[in-house]
């Protein structure tokens, strides 16, 4: 099918941000990660907070759009089989062959395990529980670490495809068309209100675990992002509305993000004793300040996602050199990147290279490792490709066909 180049490009951008974010996790202060450098960088928290509020939601949003675009080509039954193969096989392979090095590095840094990686791997592959605290997830016998996105996406995809016949039988297509036209205002307002409910009601009761079962706060906002992407994928009126409102959405995102990060910074200044809290508490009680920050967070989350879609459709819906290659490399590099980050940090931390060279080398080793492993191994060996979510053979370039005219026509106002 004629591809949406903006969606492909946004996926590449999302992966790049994910790599930068996870490198930052090694150095950010007070945020737990599988490995931490003694060289902590206080400033990295601020850009990480801004990206953190929507980075994973963007991946689920793009995944929902991708599924919506392909629905017209395949039956739900065929898609269930295809998506299960492309998600569960890489998940199983990643748990057994890619993630263990993270667990080993973490255990070595914590001092809970002192043998080599080969001995650790033989014990890990037995899938028996370890003493709690040996590494993250040790009590379960295995861990999926950053690959948690795959089982979540599989469950959302399965639920959507199983529900599709029922939705079609009860007139779901008419509801979708109404939402895309007269009911469009609900798509702008309900998700941030739902996010506000999730943060106020669900977040205090359900800690973020990425364990799939019982992770209700994460399901609340990732599921909404995925469902929204599935709904709008082929709805041209919504894409036209996004284009027309791209500056408004950007303004809301900047205002929401500015208020949210500003209140966070103010709280840090108060905690450090650099600013008195009394003038602010006279205006409103502390609980009101917290609620204001939560409201700003919800607005920023949704406005940023919509603005990214709008500007992507405006500026990125065209091929660029290397897009096809980069789009194929996204999935393998996603599977590889965090293990390479943790391993690189484990090697470099003892060298005491300082606050500039160490993170830069961790990033460089990670990117070089992802690119070289994908280029030299994954994409060239047929039986390896499915282990990283790729088809057995590379797809040949296809030409646009007449029926591709059903894709959303993105028109700049």
From TrEMBL:
Coiled-coil ranges (or none): none
Acyltransferase domain residues: 5-373
Protein name, UniProt field: Acyltransferase family protein
GO molecular function, one term: acyltransferase activity
Keyword Protein biosynthesis: no
InterPro entries: Acyl_transf_3_dom, Glucan_succinyl_AcylTrfase
Source organism superkingdom: Bacteria
Transmembrane portions of the chain: 12-34, 54-72, 84-104, 153-173, 185-204, 216-234, 246-266, 286-309, 329-349, 361-378
Pfam families for the chain: Acyl_transf_3
Keywords: Acyltransferase, Membrane, Transferase, Transmembrane, Transmembrane helix
